[in-house]
Amino acid sequence: MDPRLLLPFFFLLGLNTQAQLKRIPADSKIESVTVFLKGAEIKRTGTAQLPIGKSELVLSGISTDIESPSVQVKLEGDLTILSVGVRKNFLQEEKIREEVKQLQNQMEAIDDKLSRQRKQQDVLKQEEAMLVRNQELKSGTIAIKPADLKAALDFQRERLEELYARQLEIDKLLGKLEKEKQGLRNQANEMNSLRNLAVNEIYAVVECRRAAATPITATYLVNKAGWHPSYSIAVKDISSPLDIQFNANLYQSSGEVWKDVKLALSSGNPSQNNQKPELEPWYLRYWTPPQRVLSGRTLSDQLAGRVAGLQLESNELNDVVVVGYGSENKKERAAKPLEITTTYQPTTTKYEIKESYTILNDGKVNTIDVKKSSLPAEYEYYAAPKLEAAAYLTARLVNWQELELMAGEANLFFEGTFLGKSFIDPAASEDTLYLSLGRDANVIVKRTMVKDFSSKRFLGGNKSESKQFELSVRNNKKQSIKILLEDQYPISTMKEIEVEKDGHDGGRLNSETSVVSWNLSIAPSAEEKKSIRFTVKYPKEKRLQLD
Question: Using the 8-state DSSP alphabet, how is residue 307 labeled?
């Protein structure tokens, strides 16, 4: 017999064998979720009664946002898992589509009722308008008998009462129908969202050697979820420790509702590339930069001879860098609790929250209090009244590594008042973490010019200006404070400008930057004053800003 004739038979036999697998639906629920910075791992649990032999175990209601390669199914008992996969439940989708169609048909029937009632209401209003117009009885030359007038008025009153009563009934019915229609519309929208998001199912082909009620555990990853840290930093006063509230801002729109689940927050990110980099051989070759063409000429032709004090040849301009010069902005870095368990893994940190949470499938941010810590801090004020007449409170944390902080935004509170926002960046800190806690209006800082010691003289072709500034710090707080006060001497950039440092009242001078620093301790309600004086000699026809 030709073996080729048997191939269709075996193929159909295989299909028939696959089709004969008994489908075992299993009720499961989400027990716990581990949320990563981007993505989340869902853990479902349940039980199923498995018969002897091969069968197909099915978990339905799974989101379409699932990462198929991440699916794992664990079963207990005398059995073997032959295969695991994810597929779309088209029958469930069709069932949902039919239910949505039935809801739409009900809404159309309500629309018909609404239309009929509104038409009937229009008829009643027209009759009402006609009765109102007939209230003016024009008799002309014909005398109207009192009995006829009374009968006409009685009829009009009774009919208007009937019209108003009927219109009131229609208004109530219209409101009831609109409410019923809105309920059907909401139900249809919910069914449509289920059709689009939660119609996947996980299946596992199992060969069971003994029938039993089998516990099921399934885990898988979804993408549309994540969290990011934020902080609330509160300081009661400068003699109290610093309180840091660590918050997690969690969101998810994976297509499933996480109802009463155990949450865990991980600092990991499964979407990152975890493959270690490989260095390739570095081959050197000559490189010719491309020439940018502006209005028919190259960039070097455009710039050659047009930069003051600089001569350029067109073949010498390889790179042009434009740099803006100005004052450098000093960016200051900011630096009932839930029961949690912190697990330190080789590359990530995991926070397990003991309390159960419900996270809806709406993409909204849910703020969860993770932990609250108190640390002793060294508080110090900083002021540079030459730049700004304000004192900024800073906190210095030494053992901050124990907090396992992550980069995030921080809300600042000082003495019960919200000061604003800052940013914590542990990666930019070393042994000590500095946090800027904002201005303190109870520490008053001033910088004034002392006119008695400031003068301007002309010596031949030069001009000599002497300046003295007084720096004052007043402590209006009830506690003593420490403050770092800074000012500066000007630095000459030309030979004809000479700067003499006449005195800085015991301050510490930085020879490279010419910045003068005073570390002061000021008692409550006390004031401390310091001064800085200098003389600048320069050509009299020139001008300098020496304030």
Answer: B
* 3, 168, 454, 465 from 448: Cα distances, Å: 107, 79, 11, 17
Structural domain contains residue 43? no
Is residue 85 included in any domain, yes or no? no
Q: pLDDT, tens digit, for every residue of 148-198?
A: 667 777 777 777 788 888 888 888 888 888 888 888 888 877 766 655 555
103, with CB counted inside 10 A (0-12, 13-18, 19+), is buried
pLDDT of residue 334: 38
The CA distances from residue 101 to 98, 108, 191, 398, in Å, are: 5, 11, 10, 65
Burial of 377 (0-12, 13-18, 19+ CB in 10 A): buried
Q: Residue 116 is part of which domain span?
A: 104-136+156-197
**Does some domain include residue 487?**
yes
Q: Which residue has the higher pLDDT, 181 or 222?
A: 222
Query: How far apart (Å, rounded) are the C-alpha atoms in residues 480 and 390?
Result: 17
Left (φ > 0), alpha (ψ -120 to 50) or beta: where does 506 sit?
left
Maximum alpha-carbon separation in the chain: 126
Whether the Cβ atoms of residue 469 and residue 487 lie closer than 8 Å to each other:
yes
Tally of structural domains, the chain = 2
This prediction has a pTM of: 0.60
Q: Which residues pair with 412 in a beta bridge?
A: 233, 420
Strand ranges, E, within 5-153 = 22-25, 27-35, 38-50, 53-62, 66-75, 79-88
Does residue 484 belong to any structural domain of this protein?
yes
Residues counted in the chain: 547
User: In the chain, what are the helix, strand and coil shares in percent, each to the nearest 5?
Assistant: 25, 45, 35
Q: Is the dihedral of CA 84, 85, 91, 93 positive or negative?
A: positive
CB neighbours of 96 closer than 8 A, spacing ≥ 6?
Answer: 191, 192, 194, 195, 199
Give the CATH number for residue 530: 2.60.40
